[in-house]
Amino acid sequence: MDDTRIGEHIEQLVAEEHHLLEAHSDGEGLSPEEHNRLERIRVELDRYWDLLRQRRAKERAGLDPDDASLRGEATVERYKQ
């Protein structure tokens, strides 16, 4: 997956996240299913942002960005911000 496709996937996830949040901007809370989907979206966003950062770092270092890999949830969710 190249940077363009990764970026497009991130944009799709962000759009879905905004759609979920805007659908409940009237004060009505998310259903349990929607809340679960929102959490899954946020984890997937973290994973794809991490992949994009890996690719860019490899490219800056003169390495092949295609050697970057999508890391698991357990890895990216433990990063310190």
The helix/strand series, from N terminus to C terminus, equals: HHH
Provide the low-confidence segments as ranges: none
Measured on Cα atoms, how large is the radius of gyration?
15 Å
| Main sheet properties | none
Query: How much of the polypeptide forms β-strand, as a percent range?
Result: under 5%
Q: By helix and strand content, what is the structural category?
A: mainly alpha
Shape: elongated
Helix content: 55-70%
Mean pLDDT, to the nearest integer, reads 91
Distance between the terminal alpha carbons, to the nearest Å? 26 Å
Topology record:
Layout: H1 3-22, H2 32-60, H3 73-76
Helix pairs in contact: 1-2
Please provide a written account of the structure.
The protein has helices at residues 3-22, 32-60, 73-76. The longest helix has 29 residues, at 32-60. It has three helices and no strands. By secondary structure, the chain is an all-alpha fold. The radius of gyration is 15 Å and the shape is elongated. The model has no long low-confidence stretch (mean pLDDT 91). Helix 1 (3-22) runs antiparallel to helix 2 (32-60).
Quick structural gist:
The chain has 81 residues and is mainly α. The chain is built from three helices and no strands.
Labels describing this entry:
65% helix; 81 residues; mainly alpha
